[in-house]
């Protein structure tokens, strides 16, 4: 029996904006296009959602629903940076991580949950670490299939967790509106409504032949299976790791070099440990620094031979750090190893050179 966690960040884009800009907190905030143009809503804060505003709605309609809403343009670079931070926390738990988008991912924790006592405890620890590192909340679903884990993460939002045990799965599926099932979009739900199917139970009782006739063999069988709680899809881990890293956001902005270098050394050791755990070696190391005004710079250094130790890497990072502009305090430092190869590849290249 698999143990799968689905993590879904709460109103991700909007929450990043509210975190970074205190003046937006507690107010209806919409990330998207021009409310006087043809833009659409990319994300809405929970304050905005109270007015019925949802993703993909036109910004013009959103403004009609909530004239006092604040509209901001997306900052995808910022969202990607936070997403990578969250993924790093996930990869520290298991390599079996399947990102679905910047704000959600599956984890297969079947082989690691025992160390935490339960998959639920593991999910809660991950949520706590995400909040500690990013200041953002995440909702989680825990179950034995991807479908159920994803359904579960949506049942107790925001900042909640739901566990669906195998013995309770079918009764829950039966009770849900069909729109709650991942893969049943607006067009499919309209077709199902037309034949009197509105709930999971009604979908389960619909003959497979009817579903195939309506949706074709592949999709019809998929709908039939999910209504019966059948989902054999595996968590598809990324095949190739392009980088391994870690970063820390300080509770208070820091000026002092001695403190910053000590924190940087800690991050280097942590990142190098993750690299070693995966039997990888890196030829490139990158320093990431975010200043008090949220501006950000990176500096990299590459070697022909891979970095052999955390101390070796830190020597180069400390040199990169001393070269960066220092006009304001720093709120985040990060370390990323890239240009990766397996330790076996490194050993073979060494042998080939002899």
From TrEMBL:
Record's keyword annotation contains DNA repair: yes
Function: Poorly processive, error-prone DNA polymerase involved in untargeted mutagenesis. Copies undamaged DNA at stalled replication forks, which arise in vivo from mismatched or misaligned primer ends. These misaligned primers can be extended by PolIV. Exhibits no 3'-5' exonuclease (proofreading) activity. May be involved in translesional synthesis, in conjunction with the beta clamp from PolIII.
Organism: Moraxella cuniculi DSM 21768
Gene behind the chain: dinB
Residues annotated for Mg(2+) binding in this entry: 8, 103
Catalytic activity: DNA(n) + a 2'-deoxyribonucleoside 5'-triphosphate = DNA(n+1) + diphosphate
GO cellular component, one term: cytosol
Taxonomic lineage of the native organism: Bacteria, Pseudomonadati, Pseudomonadota, Gammaproteobacteria, Moraxellales
Subunit-structure text: Monomer.
Stretch forming the signal peptide: none
Cofactor note: Binds 2 magnesium ions per subunit.
Broadest EC class assigned to this enzyme: transferase
Primary subcellular site in the record, as a coarse category: cytoplasm
Keywords: Cytoplasm, DNA damage, DNA repair, DNA replication, DNA-binding, DNA-directed DNA polymerase, Magnesium, Metal-binding, Mutator protein, Nucleotidyltransferase, Transferase
Family note: Belongs to the DNA polymerase type-Y family.
Location(s), subcellular: Cytoplasm
Cofactor(s) needed: Mg(2+)
Protein name, entry field: DNA polymerase IV
E.C. number: 2.7.7.7
PROSITE patterns: UMUC (PS50173)
MF (Gene Ontology): damaged DNA binding; DNA-directed DNA polymerase activity; magnesium ion binding
Site (described: Substrate discrimination): 13
């Amino acid at each position: 029996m698999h143990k799968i966690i689905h993590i879904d960040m709460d109103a991700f884009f909007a929450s990043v904006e509210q975190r970074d800009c205190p003046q937006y907190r507690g107010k209806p905030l919409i990330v998207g296009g021009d409310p006087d143009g043809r833009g659409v809503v990319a994300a809405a804060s929970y304050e905005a959602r109270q007015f019925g505003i949802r993703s993909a709605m036109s910004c013009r309609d959103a403004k009609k629903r909530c004239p006092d809403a604040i509209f901001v343009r997306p900052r995808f670079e910022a969202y990607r940076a936070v997403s990578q931070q969250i993924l790093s926390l996930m990869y520290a738990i298991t390599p079996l991580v399947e990102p679905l988008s910047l704000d959600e991912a599956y984890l297969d924790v079947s082989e690691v949950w025992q160390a935490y006592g339960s998959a639920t405890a593991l999910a809660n620890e991950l949520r706590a670490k995400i909040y500690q590192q990013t200041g953002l909340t995440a909702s989680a679903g825990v179950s034995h299939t991807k479908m159920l884990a994803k359904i579960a993460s949506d049942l107790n939002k925001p900042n909640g967790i739901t566990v669906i045990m195998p013995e309770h799965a079918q009764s829950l599926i039966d009770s849900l509106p069909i729109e709650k099932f991942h893969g049943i979009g607006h067009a499919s739900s309209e077709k199902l409504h037309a034949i009197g199917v509105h709930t999971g139970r009604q979908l389960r009782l619909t003959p497979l032949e009817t579903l195939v006739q309506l949706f074709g063999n592949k999709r019809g069988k998929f709908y039939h299976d999910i209504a019966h709680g059948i989902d054999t899809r595996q968590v598809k881990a990324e095949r190739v790791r392009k980088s391994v890293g870690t970063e820390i956001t300080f509770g208070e902005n820091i000026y002092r070099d001695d403190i910053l270098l000590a924190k940087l050394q800690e991050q280097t050791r942590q990142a190098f440990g993750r690299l070693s755990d995966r039997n990888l070696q890196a030829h490139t190391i990158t320093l990431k620094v975010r200043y008090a005004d949220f501006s950000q710079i990176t500096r990299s250094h590459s070697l022909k031979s891979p970095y052999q130790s955390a101390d070796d890497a830190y020597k180069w990072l400390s040199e990169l750090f001393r070269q960066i502009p220092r006009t304001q305090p720093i709120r985040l430092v990060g370390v990323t190893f890239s240009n990766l190869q397996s330790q076996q590849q490194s050993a073979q290249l060494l042998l080939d050179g002899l």
